[in-house]
Amino acid sequence: MKLKTAPDLQQPTTNAPASAAEAENPAGLQESEFKRAEEASRVNEARFRSAFGFAPHGMALVSPAGRFLQVNRFLCQMLGYSETELLELRFQDISHADELDASLTGIKELLNGRIQLFEIQKKYLHKDGHTVWAHVRSNLLRDGAGEPLYFVSHVQDITQRKQAEEALRQSEERYFRLVELSHDGILIHSQGRLLFLNPAAAKIIGANSPEEMIGKNVLDLVHPDSRPMVEERIRQLSQGATFQPSLRQKLVKLDGTEVNVESAGVPFAFKGQPAIQVIFRDVTEITRAEEEKNRLFREVEAARDELRSLSRRLVQVQELERRRIARELHDEIGQELTALRLNIEQGAAAAGEAAHASCREAQARVNKLLGLVRELSLDLRPTMLDDLGLLPALIWQFDRYAALSQIKVQFKHLGLEGRRFSPEIETAAYRIVQEAMTNVLRHSRAKDVNITVWISDQNQTLAIQIADDGAGFDVEASFQAGKSSGLSGMRERAALLGGRFMVQSVPGEGTTVTAELPLEANEQRSGLPAS
Amino acid sequence: MSIRIVLADDHRIVREGFRALLDAQKDFEVVGETGDGLEAIRLVDKLKPDVLLVDMMMPGLNGLEVTRQITQRGLPAKVVILSMHSNEAYVLEAMKNGAAAYVLKDATSTELIRAVREAVAGRRYLSPPLSERAIEVYLQKARTTETLDRYETLTTREREVLHLSAEGHTNAEIAARLFISPRTVETHRANLMHKLGLRTHTDLIRYALRRGILSMEGGSKPAE
After folding, report:
1. How many CB pairs below 8 Å do chains A and B form together?
2. ipTM passes above 0.85
3. Could you tell me if A522 and A395 lie in one domain?
4. pLDDT, mean of residues A314-341
């Protein structure tokens, strides 16, 4: 068989001149010349075998019918067959069906001389079943008569490249699927022109479809207010910035209306060209909700301020009223009673012995009435708080307290002697102590109560602390149950003056109430006019 | 020689009552009367009485202020305060301003007359139940505590937190020891620092060393 001899045939380049020499000197060939020719042929043959065997890619000589005539080691390795096994096979046997037709067509075209070189990327089936991607280049060798001898095929393994390409393709597919489905608008632009938009982007700007926007100027979508900022952001991205963080900006929809978006940008390679990908979100609703939230917050703030000033006003009015009534009782009614007492005394002196006894009785009643009026007046608001200041009023309060209960009162004070504070401070301090003492008396079952009132030298605050050794209580539960009107009242008084109020209590270990009233802020102000 | 008196009380009926009482004394002579504080000073200045009988509470210039001004001007009249207040603080204030006698308005007429006579004789008079002793007691109470130990203003819990914190325990450890929440510990800590005027943990350690809560040798003393 002619083709069986193919492996012994020489390379075309060496073959052709040899044939030519033969043709030119058919008989007169000297023995030495013949030997030389034979030697050259042998060297060429070896050279070819060497090139074939050690080529860094697969090589094969393939018969016009497709049978492997000669294969190199690289090809064997690539396809998983031994040389012997491979020489039993045709290339059709190990080619993937996908590209088989194309391969056969190529071969046909080589055979009928229409092309000199046939190249194809195709899949082979490895012996163990997996596919091997190869780039194959084949040409056809013909004999002197022009009859096809065999194909010389170079086979390059491109499986890795193909896999990388496939991975890239899948990644791109995933990207586009994400982008298509994204609720955020995504667009890509380059040189100011829109290259791509996803459906969400089209929707936000009011376009019917992404396609109608392609090629349009991206800045036309940006509201004039936001344009300088957007242009600057684009400039930075094109000069190497890796990211433009999300920022509020205004876009103009196709119908001319405005839309608030939050937009971020990144540099992006689109079809190999430098571009910018923008991700944006319609925040009109969020903005509206934020504005609404801010408005409501301001309303609540205002309402709270109003409540605070009303509450302050209430405390002031209550004190004014108490003081007025206290004064009235003490001065007016008290004076009247004094006058009455004097009248009776004079009457008694003038009247006879009989009238004297009844006058004495009347006098006793008047005295008792005077005492009651005075007590009532002091209960409402001790006059010494206004006349003499906080310290005398507190001392009076504790004396009275000691007379009423068995609880031992210890009072320590620092910086109060001879000092007057604003009426608001004096009133608040007095009332806080009064309320705390009432609580101790009513609830604590305490034996001792320590009251400390001092001026804190650095920050000019008036500090008040009332500590008892009584039953204690659960502070939080008490505040929550709302049955702590006393505590709330104290806290409110402190808060109205910008002060602090603290209650510490441990069941079984007593209660400590502390209030701090800032002096500086309140010294100038005068809520209660001086009498 | 009679005792010359100026009477000042804004309440007309009361003033008339007192006047009747005073006039009943043969050696008393009421030389002027008024319902106004400023007028009272003017009268004392002009009439040079022996005694000014003045109501403590008058609108405008009250009795305390009238007394203070008379003393300040060096007028020789003795001031007898008439007051509804049996509170020592008022008495003390009156005495400080230079009053010679302090008479309660519900005292008997005998007391009022005695007060005037004592004042003229250059002695102090307080109508019962007021007394020098009571004023002394009051003064004691009103005296500023010489040194207020800030430590004493700490509550039991705050003291415990201070000691444990100075010994280097964390809030979580202190919370576990005292069976309270770490948040509560933090509150106590903030409050005690505030009361002691401390800012940093270093301040706290320094304070603890100074007070002997912590000893320099490193070993911690038990809480006081």
Report:
1. 104
2. no
3. yes
4. 80
